[in-house]
Every structure is written in structure tokens, then in C-alpha cells.
Amino acid sequence: MSAAAKSNLDNGDFGHFLQSHTWEAYEQLEGEKTFWLEDDGWHALVLLKSTPLGNYLYLPYGPALQDASRLTPALSQLRELASKHGAIFIRIEPTLPCYNKGEKCDNTNANRSYFTTDELKKLGLKKSHDIDPANTWVIDLPDAAEKVLDKMEKDRVRRWRNLSKKGIKIRTSKDPEEIMILSDLLKKLSSERQFNPQDENHLKNQLKAGFATLYIAELKNKPVAASLVYDYGDTRFAVHAADDPTHHNLRAGVSLTIQKILDAQAAGKKYYDFWGITTSSNPKHPWYGFTKYKKSYAGRQVDYAGTWDLPLNGTKYAIYQVLRKLNRIRRRAN
């Protein structure tokens, strides 16, 4: 691959950030075995994963496809790679949406920008439990900061404008050692809201890889909120965020979000991606609260196909699925 082609891919010409050379460098820092495949209209960052039953290939938010017709040739090359490494299945997550039969009518157009469930099943794919979110919330960033603010709740904008009066300062950092600020806040929040926080070393490696920026809101030099963002191509992704529960009344996280959005607009980004929501309307859903929060910012829902598996060894894949279900039941019981 030429240097120019690599640059285009890392500038986000098509495909998700998790299908970039930048993310590949991070995965390698994490000790993952990676492969890069590409051809006309598609490319794929592939991770080699292992289970007690054998290996499998995993493509986070991939393969990256210019249109739906590129999936078949991509799967052909992925099968060859899987055969070389004894993979029992291939796990993909295309970022084109997937519809049930009848939801879209232009099926004769080979270059359409979506799949149907029937055609994915005809390729031998089976719907799996979603690993990365199948839906996200995206803000289209206008060309002026005031237009960004005009679409937000007035009370939130007022809080952001009055930050200095409250003594809150916002700063950014690229220092991997400062990731402990976010990690500590995530741990505090997790004990209150009962979720597993992201591993601190994983977060540190994202800063080491150079693509992440840490945002920190401080009150008298004490962190009260922090967040991590990724910038890729024309998009800023908001990935991890936490407030100090003891300073909830400050709503520092809201002001931090506004600042991240404004900074993305000032840097010429076209989109601000909140990275994952649920479509469930059940208030007891673990993602219900933060989905409601993300949707409170003017934006739109973006849908992906979700996670699909291509079994290559039917027997071992079936056993793998049974063992995975048993592990989920065991974790819930604990």
C-alpha cells in the first residue's frame, strides 16, 4: 500500500475509526495479533482472537465498505485468512445499516448503502450478540459555534458560560500518566451505578497511541469530571466520561460535553459521535440513562448492521455458543 493510500485511510475517507491503521497501532500496544486486508472499495483491520475451542477472526466495526456489494469479496479474502490460522468463525460488524425484508425496496441496486437480513443470512452469516453498539447518536456540526449552542438547552449553555464563576476550569491533556484522573472517577461512578469500568491500562495505551485526548474539569485544582475523546477524519468520538458523584450538583460533565463539541467544531470536524446508545424504551435497561442524556443534545440516530458471525466449523461454533451462554448465566448469577 502506498503512503498516500495509508494517509487517506487514516484521514477517515471511509470506514469507522476502529478500522484504521491508528487503531491497529493501539491494538498492537495491547498485545493483539493484527492483520490488514484491502481491495477495491473495502479494507479490514482483523484481530486474531483465541478461545479454548480454537481461534476466530474479529473485525471491530468492520470490514469498512464503500457499499453493500463489497462484502462478498471481503468475506472471500477473510475466509482465506481464517483458513491459514485455523479460525472456527469470523466475526464482523459492518457500519452499514441492516433492514428486515420489506423495509427497503431498492434491492436491485447492487451498490446500495445498506444490507437486508436475508442477504446476510444467504452469505452464511448468523446474527450474534452485539459486541460494539449497533446504534449511536451523532451531532452534525455547523460552520459556526453559535449555531452549535443555539441547538442546545439554554440552561446547559448558561451553565457552560458561567464555568469561571463557579471556579471550574477545563483543560486537556495527552499525558498517559494523567489517565488515572478519569480512571479514578470511573471507579467512583461504577460503585454507585453498578457497572464495570474500563481498565486503566487500556485507557493509558490509548493516550500512548496518540489519537486520544483527555478532557479534565477541575474545581480548585481537584478533578470533578473527565472524558476521553478520539479524533479521526471528520469525526470526534466521545468514548469514556465520568463525573465525581460528590459534586453532581455542579453538572460539570454537561459543561465538559459542550466544550468538547465546540472544540470539535473549531477544529473543523463535521460530526460529534456519542459512541453507542440503546434503542430500548425500558427505563431499567442499563444504557437507558446515558442514552436519554445523549439524545438530549440535538442530533440523529445512526444505525449499523450489528455483530454477525460466519461459522467455518459448525460443530465447534455451536459448542462455543453454548459455552458463551453458560458463562453469561454464571456471571449474572454472581
Topology:
Layout: H1 3-10, H2 21-29, E1 33-39, E2 42-51, E3 54-58, E4 64-65, H3 71-84, E5 87-92, E6 98-99, E7 115-116, H4 117-122, E8 126-127, E9 135-140, H5 145-150, H6 154-161, H7 163-166, E10 168-173, H8 179-193, H9 200-208, E11 212-219, E12 222-232, E13 235-243, H10 252-266, E14 271-273, H11 288-295, E15 300-303, E16 308-311, H12 314-333
Parallel strand pairs: 3-5, 6-7, 13-14
Antiparallel strand pairs: 1-2, 2-3, 2-4, 5-16, 8-16, 9-14, 9-15, 10-11, 11-12, 12-13
Helix pairs in contact: 6-10
Distance between the termini: 49 Å
- What is the arithmetic mean of pLDDT? 90
Structural class computed from helices and strand pairing: alpha+beta
Radius of gyration: 21 Å
The poorly predicted ranges are 1-12
Order of helices and strands: HHEEEEHEEEHEEHHHEHHEEEHEHEEH
Q: How much helix is in the residues?
A: 25-40%
The main β sheet shows up as: 7 strands, mixed
The dominant shape is globular
Strand percentage, roughly? 25-35%
β-strand number = 16
Number of helices: 12
What report would you give on this structure?
The protein is α+β, with helices and mostly antiparallel strands and 334 residues long. Strands 1, 2, 3, 4, 5, 8 and 16 form a 7-stranded mixed sheet that branches. Strands 10-11-12-13-14-9-15 form a 7-stranded mixed sheet, sandwiched between helices. Strands 6-7 form a two-stranded parallel ribbon. The protein has 12 helices and 16 strands. It has helices spanning 3-10, 21-29, 71-84, 117-122, 145-150, 154-161, 163-166, 179-193, 200-208, 252-266, 288-295, 314-333; strands at residues 33-39, 42-51, 54-58, 64-65, 87-92, 98-99, 115-116, 126-127, 135-140, 168-173, 212-219, 222-232, 235-243, 271-273, 300-303, 308-311. α6 (154-161) crosses α10. Mean pLDDT is 90; it is low at 1-12.
